[in-house]
Amino acid sequence: GRPRKIAVGSWILPAFKLLARMKGLRQSPLNPFGWSADRRLEKALIAEYEDAIERILGRLTAENHETAVAIANLPDDIRGFGPVKQAAANATRHRAMQLLSQFTANRDLKEAM
Length: 113
Description:
Strand content: under 5%
């Protein structure tokens, strides 16, 4: 199942202030949260998205424009944290494969004519 949410009191505020002061560590190897499963997933999704965009940019036509826009909008479907984000990412990856196949099929069909 999903992790349970917890309630914390105001005693946590000093810890949050400390984390805010450590903002300079973000995007560095010293980021204590940078290697979490969620962050690794996000980095992988960014790389996959950039690869998909590179694949469609050079092949964009009026016929496949709608599919290209659908591919470009896929990241909007990924929300949440932990298991919620993982489930959304899995569904979006599956949809991306379908759309990329459709995009390629549209282009191949046009070239065959």
